[in-house]
Amino acid sequence: MMLLRANRSPDIDCTMGKFMSAPKILIIEDSPADLQLLQHGLNQQGEPYELVVLQDGEEALHFIDQQRSGAKTQPCVIVLDLHLPKHTGVEVLRALRQDPILTHVSVVVLTTLAAPMEEAEVRRIGAHFREKPMGLDEFTALAKFILDLCKSPSLARV
Q1: Cβ-count burial of 141 within 10 angstroms (0-12 exposed, 13-18 middle, 19+ buried)?
Q2: What's the domain count of the chain?
Q3: What tens-digit pLDDT sequence spans the chain (158 residues)?
Q4: Are 42 and 49 in contact (CB under 8 A)?
Q5: Is residue 97 in a domain?
Q6: In a domain, 37, yes or no
Q7: Helix-strand-coil percent breakdown of the chain, rounded to 5?
Q8: Residue 130: which H helix or E strand, with range?
Q9: Does 158 fall in a domain?
């Protein structure tokens, strides 16, 4: 697990705000390039945030187990890659929705390629489904959507 705080450059920058009040965003993504682009988009929003990064489905399921044992803070949004190593995004999403602590958390499932049945399953389970952005502007728009989800509980569940 990697923990990052709001940063404006590749180096960690702790000057953007108080971390205790910053929204906590969990990203479950195995592509370092996609992670870096999303982080850039988040930084463009000019708002503090705390980012927790997991790189595969196994780490994600372990995180869910840790939440049951009394982890201090929960994420306001979980960004989940559909095609992860070790366990799929759908498996992780099912576990999230079955967990009494995390079931209310907004989940945004991202993929570059999905069968219509996968998209329907993701929506049925109760997550936002999005194609992975292809450029900086699209990652910036996704980052805005993610932070808006943190601010507005009415957008949380699909």
Answers
A1: middle
A2: 1
A3: 555 544 433 333 333 333 346 889 999 999 999 999 999 999 999 888 899 999 999 999 998 888 877 766 789 999 999 999 999 999 999 999 998 888 889 999 999 887 888 888 889 998 999 999 988 999 999 999 999 998 876 555 55
A4: yes
A5: yes
A6: yes
A7: 40, 20, 40
A8: strand 128-131
A9: no
Which residues touch 55 (CB under 8 Å, ≥6 apart)?
2, 28, 29, 30, 85
Strands 106-111 and 24-28, by their bridges, are: unpaired
- The CATH number given to whatever domain includes residue 39 is 3.40.50.2300
Task: Describe the strand order of the beta sheet including 77-81 as a list of residue ranges.
Answer: 2-5, 50-54, 24-28, 77-81, 106-111, 128-131
Listed in sequence order, the DSSP H helices in 49-135 are 57-68, 89-98, 116-125
Long-range contacts of 132-137 (CB under 8 A, 24+ apart): 132/34, 133/37, 133/41, 136/37, 136/40, 136/41
Containing structural domain, residue 87? 2-9+19-148
For residue 157, tell me if it sits in a domain.
no
